[in-house]
Design a protein that fits this description.
There is one protein chain. A hairpin with a 5-residue loop joins strand 1 (46-47) and strand 2 (53-54). Helix 12 (227-245) packs across helix 13. This protein has two domains: 9-220, P-loop containing nucleotide triphosphate hydrolases (Rossmann fold, 3-Layer(aba) Sandwich); 227-358. It is 47% helix and 12% strand. The chain contains 17 helices and eleven strands. The protein is of the alpha/beta class. The strands form four sheets. Strands 4-7-10-3-11 form a five-stranded parallel beta sheet.
């Protein structure tokens, strides 16, 4: 077992990628490690003719993944769009791993991201000693991907200032990156493309210009369609992270996942699962990713400070932290939900008690 806290997708799932390569006899675009069919199979899982079983990385609409992969075979970049916690970054990483075997060429979007992070920078010691030269130039992930025909990932594109976002227009349109200081340019090789992720729910979002939007094909990743789908997603990720973090996953975990996911879906949708009662929604997104976080926090408490069995007491604190983001509005929403919904469910008495004590 490696001591690395988190492996890159191409490392963690290397056996699956190799198994797919062995049976993949379909046409591959230039510089792709797998065919588009094999990439989708890697994402959605399935049993190969060789008998090898590929685990699903994304649980949802197959057509969305087919559209995403098909986009990467064209000259359009791919924008994965949706509310926070809909697996945009997860899908982006696995797409890059399957397409080019390298998910590490990442540009993290923040309010402080500069043009140099997208284009290139300079080694100032070299620059002062020798002047502008190729040796003094520091390649960005974008430049490296262009030269090697790989995928660049841009996380949280809408967090990047608008004037810096537009640096991408020339790259996506012309497939060349000018380097005026050297009177030269870097041309993109076949296989190069960009996968960006974005959401419209965070504070500090910078809308994309129309010119930049036209350079992307947008795929909207929705929240899981059904309770069962969301429970399956959370269960899989909790088991995976449990192994990685060395947290035992007790037998009753699925039952607790169902309760947490039910709470999140009801508050997110503003109605109980049977549609019999309207509810107020809190200010947060209550995403699938947050449900996974609540469960992992509960497992940690149960392992290190409890009896090893996951109970309502371990989940209550994390639930409160996930739901109550706005200190004024959200406590009212949470207390009302506890009194009108949780309290009335006969098999949720323990959860009601634990949450009341925390509140």
């Amino acid at each position: 077992m490696t001591d690395t806290l988190r492996q890159h997708a191409e490392q963690e799932f290397g056996a699956e990628l190799e198994a797919l390569k062995e049976v993949d006899d379909r046409a591959r675009p230039t510089n792709w490690a797998l065919s588009p069919w094999a990439v989708v199979t890697y994402l959605l899982g399935g049993k190969l003719d060789s008998g090898f079983t590929v685990t699903p990385k994304y649980i949802g609409d197959r057509r969305l993944m087919e559209i995403a992969v098909a986009t990467l075979t064209t000259d359009r970049a791919l924008l994965l769009y949706g509310v926070p916690g809909t697996a945009k970054s997860w899908v982006s990483e696995h797409l890059a791993a399957a397409v080019c075997g390298d998910s590490t060429l990442v540009i993290q979007g923040t309010a402080g991201t500069s043009e140099e992070a997208i284009r290139y920078g300079w080694n100032y010691a070299q620059l002062l000693a020798k002047g502008p030269s190729r040796d003094a130039l520091v390649e960005s992930p974008m430049m490296h991907a262009m030269e090697n025909g790989k995928i660049t990932r841009i996380e949280e594109l809408t967090r990047i200032p608008s004037d810096v976002q537009d640096t991408l227009i020339t790259v996506l349109s012309e497939k060349h990156l000018p380097v005026p200081e050297l009177n030269s340019e870097v041309a993109a090789n076949k296989g190069f493309n960009v996968i960006a992720t974005a959401n419209n729910r965070d504070r500090g979002v910078n809308e994309l210009s129309s010119a930049l939007q036209r350079r992307f094909n947008t795929v909207i990743l929705p929240t899981p369609a059904t309770l069962k789908d969301e429970v399956n997603i959370v269960e899989k990720r909790v088991n995976d992270l449990g192994r990685s973090l060395e947290l035992p996953v007790p037998p009753n975990t699925v039952k607790e996942i169902e309760r947490v996911v039910t709470i999140f879906r009801e508050l997110r949708q503003g109605t109980t699962m049977d549609n019999q009662e309207k509810l107020k929604s809190p200010s947060g997104t209550l995403s699938t990713a947050e449900a996974i976080s609540v469960m992992n926090s509960g497992l940690s408490l149960a392992t290190h400070f409890g009896e090893g069995e996951l109970s309502a007491d371990e989940l209550a604190a994390s639930l409160l932290g996930a739901v109550v983001k706005d200190p004024v509005q959200d406590p009212v929403v949470w207390r009302e939900y506890l009194e009108t919904v949780v309290k009335e469910r006969a098999d949720w008495k323990d959860l009601y008690r634990a949450c009341r004590e925390m509140s």
